[in-house]
Specification:
With 179 residues, the chain is of the alpha+beta class. Helix content is 28%, strand content 36%.
Length: 179
């Protein structure tokens, strides 16, 4: 699977080639570790290898127009199989790409993959309430809506923070594509 446009391409993660770059993005020295997985514990290379080699879902790496990796998408089934609901996590690991056209394209390609290739009916994203970049992106592009607030959901750097659960239905995605 490869989804691409002139700004970026998205492909399944390679358990051999992609572990180190993903570790750099979500490992203990990363400034994005709080947005990935469980921000209260250090992520080891073995955990990263499991994330990259995701046997129960899809882990995708985003590359910019110069073929430099900059982001990660994780998709996994959520709830009963008949719901066709997937949880999605997107992470822009490279600071220079945050708030970039390529980051927006990564999210767009991830939605396309989930709805068109996987047949998702709904996507759910749990977004830390202080992640203004992600909330701005979702809001600006009218990608679904906030479904609920999870109070004191994450424990990061000694404090509890809230998280928003954001939902996008396939009908909302299809309507957005028509625009």
């Amino acid at each position: 699977m490869s989804r691409h446009n002139r700004f970026m391409r998205l492909r399944h993660a390679d358990p051999v080639d992609d572990v180190e770059v993903v570790y750099r993005w979500i490992g203990p020295r990363s400034d994005t570790r709080q947005f990935a997985m469980n921000g209260e514990t250090a992520v080891s290379r073995d955990v990263v290898r499991q994330i990259v080699d995701n046997p129960t879902g899809h882990t995708l790496v985003a590359f910019d127009g110069d073929d430099v990796p900059f982001g990660l998408v994780w998709l996994g089934a959520y709830g009963p199989p008949s719901s066709r609901t997937f949880e999605i996590e997107c992470l822009v690991g490279e600071p220079a790409h945050r708030q970039s056209v390529a980051a927006g394209a990564m999210v767009a390609r991830a939605l396309e993959f989930a709805f068109q290739d996987l047949g998702a009916r709904k996507l759910l994203a749990t977004v830390p309430a202080h992640n203004a970049h992600a909330i701005d992106l979702l809001t600006a592009h009218r990608l679904g809506r906030r479904e609920c607030l999870l109070r004191d959901y994450y424990f990061i750097d000694g404090s509890y923070i809230d998280a928003w659960v954001w939902g996008v239905l396939d009908s909302e995605y299809a309507e957005k594509r028509k625009m």
